[in-house]
Amino acid sequence: MKKIIGSSGVLAIPFVANAQMINSEGVDIVVFNICATIFTVGLFMMFILVIIKRVMENRLKNKIVDKGIPENLASSILQTSPNENMNNNVKWFAILFGLGIALTIIYYTLPLGIHSLAIISFCLAASFLGYFYFLKRQ
Questions:
Q1: Is the full-model pTM beyond 0.85?
Q2: What digits encode the pLDDT tens for the residues 75-110?
Q3: How many domains does the chain have?
Q4: CA distance linking residue 99 with residue 110, whole number of Å
Q5: Is the peptide bond before 70 cis (omega within 30 degrees of 0)?
Q6: How confident is the model at residue 1 (pLDDT cuts 50, 70, 90)?
Q7: Is residue 16 part of a domain?
């Protein structure tokens, strides 16, 4: 059943897809604005989530201290691993480094087009692959 649905979906793609670009000079400004807006909102949401996580962790630590939980249990709960912070920093370095390489390549391969999105995707994928190998070796 899954093969039938998958095959019919693959066969229907050429009838649905339109491979011609309306504007041959590059990506339409409306598409660029939409992508930039989605990216900005995503970064803003991630920032809010990190702030909420930090506030909740702080509240949990304060409640553990206030309740008077035994010291060995509290230290095991409150113990933070410096490895996690280092891995988080390396992850963000890999992401931003991949994005920087992608934007540099895009700058030298103007005009903007669908290939620009492909370059960003491949560079970010390569940076995540590098981060994966970093974690695997650690």
A1: no
A2: 777 777 666 667 888 888 888 899 889 888 888 887
A3: 2
A4: 17
A5: no
A6: low
A7: no
Same domain for 122 and 95: yes
Q: Give the number of residues written for the chain.
A: 138
Give the residue numbers spanning the domain of 99. Answer: 81-138
Q: Which residue has the tokens 């060995």?
A: 72
Same domain, 90 and 74: no
DSSP state of 91: H
Q: Would you tell me how many other CB atoms lie within 10 Å of the CB of residue 102?
A: 21
| Cβ neighbour number for residue 98 with a 10 Å cutoff | 21
Is 105:119 a contact under the CB 8 Å cutoff? Answer: yes
Q: What is the structure's pLDDT at 84?
A: 66
C-alpha to C-alpha distance for 102 and 110, rounded to whole angstroms: 12
DSSP character for 17? -
